[in-house]
Amino acid sequence: ERIGTSQNPSVKISDDGRSSFTVLMTGLRLTDSGWYFCSVGDWQAPVQLMVTKPKQ
């Protein structure tokens, strides 16, 4: 397993070295909601992130 970071220090990427990876984002705000792109080499996939208020 490899663990790295993106250009943003609040993002941690873990790669199992086989066929999947995990992205952990911390400190998210409602304004962080939107479309992001996940890319590996020439492959890209759009990812929609929806940040919601915690339930009380």
What's the SSE blueprint?
Elements: E1 2-5, E2 11-15, E3 21-25, E4 34-40, E5 43-49
Antiparallel strand pairs: 1-2, 2-3, 4-5
Protein name: Immunoglobulin V-set domain-containing protein
InterPro entries: Ig-like_dom_sf (IPR036179), Ig-like_fold (IPR013783)
Report what the structure shows.
With 56 residues, the protein is mostly beta strands. It has one domain (2-49). It has strands at 2-5, 11-15, 21-25, 34-40, 43-49. The strands form 2 sheets. Strands 1-2-3 form a 3-stranded antiparallel beta sheet, with no helix packed on it. The protein is globular and about 40 Å long. The chain starts with a strand and ends in a 7-residue tail after the last strand. This is Immunoglobulin V-set domain-containing protein.
List keywords for this structure.
56 residues, mainly beta, 3-stranded antiparallel sheet
